[in-house]
Design brief:
The protein is mostly helical. It has 17 helices and no strands. Helix 13 (about 340-355) crosses helix 14.
Length: about 450
């Protein structure tokens, strides 16, 4: 028998094949002659007819044939594997029979608890050596991965659904409320967001200290309320713009926060502040003589001009400040309000001008709360749209404290001595907004 490298597969011709051809086997010895190498030649299992479809595995049978071979009739190696040291060691290390391995690999019923078990020793890295024979059934079961349980499949589906939902959740864009004014050059659509962003940043700088009356020795909160109530009547009589009234009150509060004033000069401060606001806002400015006449000639022209110089010097000529009016216009637009809601909102916020305690709220919060209170009063329930929340940057909870106070002012507006705002908004020109029912249900929240 010609042997070329006994360890190379496909290089040795099967002895049983030669016997079938009738080739004489004289001169070929087994057993004693091969004892010098302490090994036997391996056959090529690929050349044997009837080998299982897995080329790396053969059927385990007895390691010794029923009829032992001799010199003339050597033993056949068909269906057998020679016993080597490594193969014997692997058989010794096997911890369980093949039929136990197959039964352990069976799938458990759906819903039962599974525990991860380590691979049996027959499938360990040592067992998967080239000289180890593995049963075909074991080979199939080792490559069949266990199917996932129903709970695992549901968990996987839920995870995938959550990932899809997280991808779909995107930040909600701010509704566009300026597209309708794209062709209006006075609306400055290209810059309006930047303008109001600047107003929000600087509104605290244009506010008066909320407790400045404590520094005044001759005037009090009631005197301030009387002055503002009277100026609202003057503003209405002169038919001035809304911006003028809000700027007048702002100038008065900022000046009194920096300068002490005696009681008899308080009305002079009021008319002079209105004169400055008219110069800043109005196209047609009332003359000084008209203001002197409306104040029953209590002051002279020289006194008015002197007070004007003192106010602008104290305020450092800073008249461009954001008042509640500028925010009212923007927030009413975001709320998609009609004329009735607009008039009621301005009625509520003008009631706040008279009240000294409302100075603790910033102008943007006052405007947003007035719009929210008027909107809720007209609808009969609390209403604050997503667009309003995004454009005002105030949630409904942030507005409730200020809104409750506004409801109280709305309820008491027609009573007492300071009724200028109530009488103004009780006319048909202002839609009789003062006659509307207050939103009492906001007091209960």
């Amino acid at each position: 028998m010609d042997r070329v490298g006994g360890n190379h597969r496909g290089m040795v011709e099967s002895t049983s094949a030669r016997d079938c051809k009738g080739v004489p086997m004289e001169g070929v010895k087994f057993g004693a002659d091969m004892g010098n190498n302490n090994r036997r030649a391996l056959k090529d299992i690929r050349n044997i007819v009837g080998v299982p479809p897995y080329p790396c595995a053969v059927i385990k049978k007895g390691l010794q044939d029923k009829s032992a071979g001799n010199d003339k009739n050597p033993p056949s190696f068909v269906g057998r594997r020679p016993m080597t040291r490594r193969f014997a060691a692997s058989l010794t290390n096997q911890s369980q029979p093949c039929h136990q391995i197959s039964s352990a690999r069976r799938l458990q019923p759906i819903g039962s608890e599974r525990q991860k078990k380590p691979l049996p020793s027959a499938l360990s890295s040592r067992a998967l050596d080239a000289s180890t024979a593995i049963d075909v059934d074991d080979f199939k079961s080792a490559n069949d991965l266990p199917l996932p349980m129903v709970e695992e499949m549901e968990e996987l589906d839920n995870c995938e659904l959550k990932e899809v939902e997280m991808e779909d959740l995107q930040e909600e864009p701010i509704p566009d409320i300026d597209s309708c004014d794209s062709k209006n050059p006075l609306a400055v659509v290209e810059y309006v967001e930047d303008i109001y962003s600047f107003f929000r940043q600087t509104e605290d700088l244009g506010r008066a200290c909320p407790n400045y009356i404590a520094n005044q020795f001759d005037i009090n909160e009631k005197m301030r309320a009387i002055l503002i109530d009277w100026l609202i009547e003057v503003h209405y009589k002169f038919e001035l713009m809304d911006e003028t009234l809000f700027l007048t009150v702002n100038i008065i509060d900022r000046f009194l926060a920096r300068q002490t004033v005696v009681r008899k000069k308080l009305q002079l401060v009021g008319v002079t502040a209105m004169l400055l606001a008219c110069k800043y806002e109005e196209v047609s400015v009332p003359v000084v003589e008209d203001l002197i006449l409306i104040s029953d000639r209590a002051y002279t022209r020289e006194e008015v001009l002197e007070m004007e110089r003192l106010i602008v010097k104290t305020l450092r000529f800073n008249m461009s400040v954001p008042t509640p009016y500028v925010f009212m216009r923007r927030f009413l637009k975001a709320a998609d309000s009609d004329k009735k809601q607009e008039l009621l909102s301005f009625y509520i916020v003008e009631l706040c001008l008279v009240e000294y305690q409302m100075l603790k709220f910033c102008p943007s919060l006052l405007a947003a709360a007035a719009v929210y209170t008027a909107q809720s009063a007209l609808k009969g329930f609390k209403h604050w749209s997503r667009a309003s929340e995004l454009h005002t940057n105030y949630s409904e909870d942030q507005l409730l404290e200020c809104s409750r106070m506004m409801v109280e002012f709305h309820q008491k507006a027609g009573h007492g001595k300071l009724t200028a705002v109530y009488r103004k908004y009780s006319t048909f020109k202002f839609g009789c907004a003062a006659k509307s029912e207050p939103a009492f249900f906001l007091m209960d929240t």
